[in-house]
């Protein structure tokens, strides 16, 4: 054969849609042998009229047909080849019916609804404490709501926009059903917060529907980030909060939320503070004396609005503040350690110094 009328392995691979590795395999299996093999170099050449046959092989293999059946089909007469293809299609159709049945059974098992009974006042307070951290970035639809995470007798509410996170727990007065994680859209949360307060509220969580009091809707169909790992990474060291002498010298402080809010919302910058921190940013330092505002050693910059909203979410309570990994600021209610807010630091622009 004249090599100028034939195709190299690479050219034949591109024309047929079969990778070179597959061509070697089908050659060894006797399904698609090259038209010519150089006796010296071992290089393989394919005839142009083999392209159609190779495309048939590629198409049949994509359907999962066994190689032995493919070999029979492309070497048999047209009637026999058609019967082989039809038999494989009937096999696939049977498998599809069986798979659909198994999937339907799995959906039924996974469609279990978890129903909760919660104190209305406690649920509203908890939702308000995390509401500020809900995202509105269209690129992250999973973060456009509040995660309702039910495990045993506790409902944990979580919200994050990737720059901050808020989490709190709500005791359950009753729960029926398995553990569940459902993202409740913020529109439903806001509508619920705007309704009148009752003694108890029923919550129903399922994959296709969520009910919050007398409101219902479709939950957000997305996977929520692993907030457990994030909270664990920023868990502070254990110390006795009632004994000031036991506190570490740095990276930890206590403060009452109202007093801290007054400090944070005060717009006057301290001596030597960066000009860029006067409005949008605020510099925070922590030690035994409390929270330091301003450009002092070991201070870290944070978004002032984010910090203000986080402090407000705690109401009138004592706070424990710590720096975690990468100077993430952790705020926790002293008498309710499950109520936590995390705020990522902001890198200062050196030109603002």
From TrEMBL:
UniProt keyword list: Cytoplasm, DNA replication, DNA-binding, DNA-directed DNA polymerase, Nucleotidyltransferase, Transferase
A Pfam family it matches: MerR_1
InterPro entries, sorted: DNA-bd_dom_put_sf, DNA_clamp_sf, DNA_polIII_beta, DNA_polIII_beta_cen, MerR-type_HTH_dom
Membrane-spanning segments: none
Domain (HTH merR-type) ranges: 6-76
Subcellular location: Cytoplasm
Domain of life assignment: Bacteria
Main location: cytoplasm
Family membership: Belongs to the beta sliding clamp family.
PANTHER family: BETA SLIDING CLAMP, DNA POLYMERASE III SUBUNIT BETA
Name this protein carries in UniProt: MerR family transcriptional regulator
